[in-house]
UniProtKB/TrEMBL annotation:
It comes from the Eukaryota. One of its GO terms (molecular function) is carbon-sulfur lyase activity. This is Mss4-like protein. Residues 4-109 form the CENP-V/GFA domain. The keyword Lyase applies. Belongs to the Gfa family. Keywords: Lyase, Metal-binding, Zinc.
Amino acid sequence: MDDVQDSCLCEGVKFFVTGAPDTAFKCYCSHCSKTRFAKFKREAVQVVEGTELMSTYILTDDLSGSPKHKVFCSRCGCTLWTIPMKHHGTHWILRTAIIKDGLEKLPYKSEFFASRMKAVAAPDGVRRFDTMPGQ
């Protein structure tokens, strides 16, 4: 993936993403509800404008047993990324839909579907896990 600059819905928070993600995935847990994500190393993401608009909601009821920090724009409510504290903040999980052409450029390669409807089949070539590996 090329380096990209993008933003939340209201363009109040702008960020720059460098390089390719470690992986791209889809999650069906109650927090994510079928949203696609890409996992980047922390240093690959740089907020260039709007840090004063960023707020964090901490989720503690996830499968890993460690909190997840959901970072969002306080003006438009757009979720920007999730920081899984199980990994001590070393990776940020960005929503691929807010990265320019992210849904096309970052096809998901795995999915976590413990809460997914079992009758719905995953696409061929997509690895399936009940939870995120390492949890």
